[in-house]
Amino acid sequence: MHRSLLHPGPGPELPRAARSRAGQAAPLKIGKHGQLQEWLEDFDEACPNHRHTTHLLALYPGAQITRRSTPDLAKAARVTLERRLSQPNWEDVEWSRANLINFFARLGDGDQAAAHLLGLLREDTEADLLTFSRGGIAGAPQNIFCIDGNYAGAAGIAEMLLQSHQAEVEGLESRVQCLELLPALPKVWANGSVKGLRARGGFEVDLNWQDGKLTRARVLSLLGNPCRLRLDDKVIELKTRQGKAYAFNGQLQPL
Question: Domain extents for the chain?
Answer without folding.
Answer: 16-162, 177-249
